[in-house]
Amino acid sequence: MSGAVDPALQKAMQSLAVPGFLVGHRVIQPGDESVLLATELATITSPVPDKRRASGAARIVGRALLQQLGIAKNAIPKRVSGAPLWPDGVTGSFAHDQTVAVAAAGLRRDVGALGIDVEPATTLPADMLDLVTSATERLGADGDPLRGRVLFAVKEAVYKAVHPLDGKFLDYHDIEVDLAAQKAVTKTGRALDIRICVAAHVVAVAWIAKL
User: Fold this and answer.
1) What's this model's pTM, rounded to 2 decimal places?
2) Residue 204: which of 166, 148, 165 has the closest Cα?
3) Are 131 and 172 in contact (CB under 8 A)?
């Protein structure tokens, strides 16, 4: 199983450790799709093998986090919205890029809402920067080629945290991120804490401690 862990990413993700929830990752492996349970397969209908493999890798991580939370092996099917359906009393989130799957999970008594995203640690294409970020958020971007990518990841994590609560679509400009303060707010009035780590991938988590 050592090949399923990126040591540099594992070390970087230690900075995401916050009381109330757990995070983990897995380098996507051939055969990860075989772990999907029947109730999961009923909701993960993509015919693309790579997508099913990534979904399997995410659930390997998710089930490991559930075990750490004291919850027995459990199916984590996909909602119609695409978000994972966690066991009662649990909130959490999945994400993956082409090579890595990540998950975050916590007990609802400890965290009210939780989102995670992973992105390659590459410069966000110039044509996406204005689409994703505000002028205020771009301050300082000239000296940080990854700033746009980090903001993209944070906003994806924020959306994953709040959409199950409000059921409302949020555009990127509906979320304002203050990286220095480690905070984000949405046009719907949600305020979230955020954390980011960077290795070969950017991982962002966003959460609301109590609802």
Assistant:
1) 0.95
2) 148
3) yes
Backbone angles phi, psi at 166, to 5 degrees: -105, -20
CB distance 63 to 74 below 8 Å: yes
According to DSSP, the β-strands at 183-186 and 175-178 are: antiparallel
- With beta carbons less than 8 A apart as the criterion, state whether 48 and 125 touch: no
Q: Which two tokens stand for residue 86?
A: 């966690």
Structure token digits, residue 81: 């919205």
Confirm if 74 and 87 have CB atoms less than 8 A apart: yes
The alpha-helical segments, DSSP class H, found in 14-100 are 38-41, 49-68
| Tokens read off for 106 | 């916590």
Give the separation between CA 101 and CA 28, rounded to whole angstroms.
6
User: Mean pLDDT per 10-residue run, the chain (211 residues)?
Assistant: 82 93 97 96 93 97 96 92 94 97 97 98 92 87 85 98 94 96 96 97 96 78
Considering Cα of 103, then 83, then 180, then 201, what sign does the dihedral take?
positive
The encoded tokens of residue 150 equal 């980090």
Coil, strand or helix at 49:
helix
Q: Which residue has the tokens 């980011």?
A: 196
Segment (H or E) for 193: strand 191-198
Q: d(Cα 8, Cα 157) in Å, to the nearest integer? A: 21
From the list 69, 91, 78, 65, the residue with the least C-alpha distance to 161 is 91
